[in-house]
Prior knowledge:
Elements: E1 4-10, H1 14-25, E2 29-36, H2 43-56, E3 64-65, H3 81-84, H4 106-116, E4 121-125, H5 130-138, H6 142-145, E5 146-152, H7 168-172, H8 174-182, E6 187-190, H9 192-195, H10 202-209, H11 214-233, H12 243-252, E7 257-262, E8 264-266, E9 276-278, E10 297-303, H13 305-316
Parallel strand pairs: 1-2, 1-4, 2-3, 4-5, 5-6, 6-10
Antiparallel strand pairs: 7-10, 8-9
Helix pairs in contact: 1-2, 1-11, 1-12, 4-5, 5-8, 10-11, 10-13, 12-13
Amino acid sequence: MSSRKIIFDTDPGVDDAVAAFMALACPEIDVVGLTSVYGNLPIDITTANALRFVELAGRPDIPVARGADRPLVVDDIGPVPFIHGDNGLGNAPVADPSIELSPLHAAEFIYQMAAANAGEITLVPVGPLTNIALAVRLHPDLPELVHEVVVMGGNAYAPGNASPGGEANMLHDPEAADIVLGEDWPLTMVGLDVTNAVNLDHAQLAAIAAVDSPPNLLLAAAMPFYQAFYEDNLEGFEGLCPHDAVAIAYLLQPELFETVQKPLRVEMHGFGRGKTWAADPYHLTEPNSPWAGRPDVTIATGGDAQAISELIVAELTRADSGSKP
Length: 325
Ligand code: RIB
Ligand code: CA
């Protein structure tokens, strides 16, 4: 089986690191590029972390392109160092990256890679959707060139995590998200409806930390800060939610997920800003339906949370973790 080419669009972030190293370790996935975006931390920090990922995974040949430093329209809601640490990696000690950035902006990198590999690239955005929206607005033929889009973000039926209504990636840039979710391309939204239920428990975190490889040593140093956020704020919770890695799990084993097909809109106003609304049958056909003309999106609504967490751990504890050729 040939491996699946992905561009990983990321705002690292500790769970972004878990996801990136999972994808980089997995032979079924061919990471052809990383693109950075502001989000969990400002763009200088997230970009440096993306460079660190390919370096630590022994893949300095994988290009990294720097992306947007702010949302499309309004001011950003701001970074979250209290969740991911001041350096986005749980305040783990990290060296300066030694490899060079791509000269291309992330949006242009995405388009050029998609054009050069027509029909083969899966976009996996796990941060604000600004780069993807910019790419598709600059190049309206992008959807014809891309194989698929798998987004970590959104909440069709679950409450928000960054506000009462909004999931963090959507709330950073709802205008961009509404563009991306409204394009006519095969798109799956892996959001809080499923990722909230996927937990890496203490034994699983210890198994990941026990692997003596550069990626896992970084994860071992980075995950405790993020874990503490969960355990200090959620009564009775043990471990952490590896949100972004759940999108990688979906690429590998979609059969572990329950899905529905419905159009989505993103709420722009008030305390519901950032909320992803799935079409409901009563309002879908109204003359002024918010979903009029919108394509169906595959929405992950649940899944086998235990099997998904075990898949994430299995990929991160491969004997050759981080050294895939
Ligand atoms: O809501 C979870 C998402 O927000 C993840 O992508 C996490 O990294 C943060 O950006
Ligand atoms: Ca992220």
